[in-house]
Each structure stands twice: as C-alpha cells, then as structure tokens.
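Q: I'm building a small set of examples for a reading group on sequence design. Run inverse folding on the following structure and report the sequence directly after it, with nothing in between.
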C-alpha cells in the first residue's frame, strides 16, 4: 500500500511539474523569445568589439555582423504575425546602424567604456520599445 501511495504521489507531482512547465512556455510567445535572443546577441556583439585598447579585427567583425544580419532575417522570415515584422525590420536596421558606428569607432581606436555602456543602453531601449510596440 505504501508503494502505491508513493507511485500516485510521484505521478501527481510529475503532472504538476509538466503543467507548470507548459504554462511557462505558453506565456512566453515565440516572438518574445526571439527578441530576447536577438537582444542577447547584440549585447554580446558590443561586449566583443567595444573593448577599449583592443586591436580591431575586421574579418571577425564582418563575420559577426553577417551573423547578426542573418539572425534578423531569419527572425523576420519566421515571424508568424505580420504586424510584428516591421518591428523586427526596425531592429535589424538599428543593428546595422550600430554596427557601422562601432566599426568606425573601433577601426580608429576610439572605443571607450562610455561608448560601450551607451551602446548597450541604446540596444536595451530599442528592444524595450520594440516589445512595447509589439503588444500595442
């Protein structure tokens, strides 16, 4: 009888855990996850290339920009809601502008901690605004 109670209790707990995990997935739409992934990519891009005193590696920079552009194009292509595609296009264009600005600064050795902090703040503001637009 004790093993039956243990089995029932374990089954119940597994069902509850599964239900909670399902709720977490349902409450976070795919486009929200995509936006979070794109934001994380951009922040890591700044962390990698907006380093004061670091020698500028044009090939690595160009490869990372190409990766970012591809990520944005995939996000736009895979977005299920047509109304959200312009938001993603805006973010893609902002990424291109930020990359061009960072290229100019990094290639001339004019990267500062303040520049990196400002770029990260701008990226977060852009994505926060995109999230607000997406829900309107």
């Amino acid at each position: 009888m004790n093993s039956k109670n243990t089995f029932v209790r374990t089954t119940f707990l597994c069902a509850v855990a599964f239900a909670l995990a399902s709720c977490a997935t349902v409450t976070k739409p795919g486009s929200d996850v995509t936006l979070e992934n794109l934001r994380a990519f951009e922040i890591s891009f700044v962390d990698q290339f907006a380093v004061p005193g670091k020698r500028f590696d044009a090939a690595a920079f160009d490869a990372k920009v190409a990766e970012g552009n591809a990520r944005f194009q995939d996000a736009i292509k895979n977005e299920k809601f047509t109304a959200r595609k312009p938001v993603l296009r805006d973010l893609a264009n902002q990424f291109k502008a930020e990359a061009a600005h960072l290229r100019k600064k990094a290639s001339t050795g004019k990267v500062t901690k303040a520049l990196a902090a400002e770029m990260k703040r701008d990226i977060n503001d852009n994505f926060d605004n995109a999230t607000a637009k997406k829900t309107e």
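The chain has five helices and no strands.
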